[in-house]
Design a protein that fits this description.
Layout lengths: L10 H8 L3 H12 L3 H19 L5 H7 L5 H12 L3 H8 L7 E3 L6 E3 L8 H11 E8 L2 E9 L4 H12 L11 E6 L12 E8 L10 E5 L2 E10 L4 H14 L10 E4 L11 E8 L2
Antiparallel strand pairs: 1-2, 3-8, 4-6, 4-7, 5-6, 5-9, 8-10, 9-10
């Protein structure tokens, strides 16, 4: 669904593809996501549009509305304003250089609030911090195989990581060359509520994995990627991502329509200062 937001994602069509009745798919989908399918699709389309408004200034509002199947600019603008509390044009102007959380409308009381606790940084400070805490390269990353579990939201993340490690460790997978724990982001904390952000918590390897029904598998295609190598405390991850996106924009790069991800190179609990050695990866055009 996330890869076909510009197409027909009606309940009837998705139910047919998934081999469920519309009634059962509706119940199952809401049980897993806490949203109806229609609400989910609309939210994802508007959130994806918000990212295009920020990262692709060359695209007009009409192009973005058409890309995600809105019948008119006015329908797109009304739907967008319900979620973000402002028109797409006002949102683009307000967030052109904003690397903090983006405000959304609280569906309960109609008031604008921040997705999570405000995390505002001075851009100059972030650039200086990045220079002191990261090495940055643009690399052609190869095709990777990913064995993963899906996790939604920030609660229970430690348990999700432990589950994937418990799956991989007895099989000796983590001792293989160039094999690392990984996290892929299917949503952006910039535009999605933290408790709705979907992530793949997994093991990344250049080699394929043996079939196993207890786990999911996918391929990350080779890509031109900004790779920022950091040695940081867990609480500094948001700061690291913000600074890396600032670097991307300052150096004239455009994010590709591919999910960003993290590659971990150590167990931070075993580090004397409890720091993570991690690559933050942004695929670019």
């Amino acid at each position: 669904m996330d890869e076909n937001l510009d197409g027909d994602l009606s309940l009837e069509k998705i139910a047919r593809l998934a081999y469920y009745s519309p009634y059962h798919l509706h119940r199952l989908f809401k049980a897993v996501t806490n949203e109806t399918l229609n609400v989910y699709v609309t939210r994802k389309r508007i959130e994806r549009a918000a990212l295009l408004l920020i990262h692709h200034q060359e695209m007009s509002l009409s192009e973005i509305a058409d890309k995600f199947g809105f019948k008119s600019d006015s329908v797109f603008s009304r739907t967008f304003k319900k979620i973000y509390g402002q028109s797409p044009l006002a949102f683009r102007k307000a967030n052109a250089s904003n690397f903090s959380k983006i405000s959304k409308v609280n569906s309960n009381n109609g008031q604008i609030h921040f997705i999570t606790e405000a995390y505002l940084y001075n851009i100059t400070h972030l650039k200086n911090w990045l220079n002191m805490n990261a090495t940055i390269e643009i690399k052609e990353l190869p095709t990777f195989h990913l064995a993963y579990l899906t996790h939604i939201g920030t609660n229970g993340l430690d348990l999700a990581f432990q589950r994937i490690i418990n799956w991989a460790a007895p099989k000796g997978i983590l001792t293989r060359a160039e094999t690392n724990v990984c996290r892929v982001f299917h949503d952006s904390f910039k535009v999605t509520d933290a408790q709705r952000v979907r992530m793949s918590i997994g093991i990344l390897s250049p080699n394929n994995f043996a079939a196993d029904k207890s786990i999911d598998f996918r391929i990350l295609e080779k890509s031109k990627t900004i790779v920022g190598r950091f040695l940081i405390e867990p609480l500094a991850f948001e700061k690291a991502w913000d600074s890396l996106f600032i670097w991307m924009n300052a150096n004239g790069h455009q994010r590709a329509d591919v999910n960003p991800f993290e590659i971990y190179h150590n167990n931070y609990m075993e580090h004397p200062d409890k720091k993570c050695m991690v690559d933050l990866c942004i695929p670019i055009r």
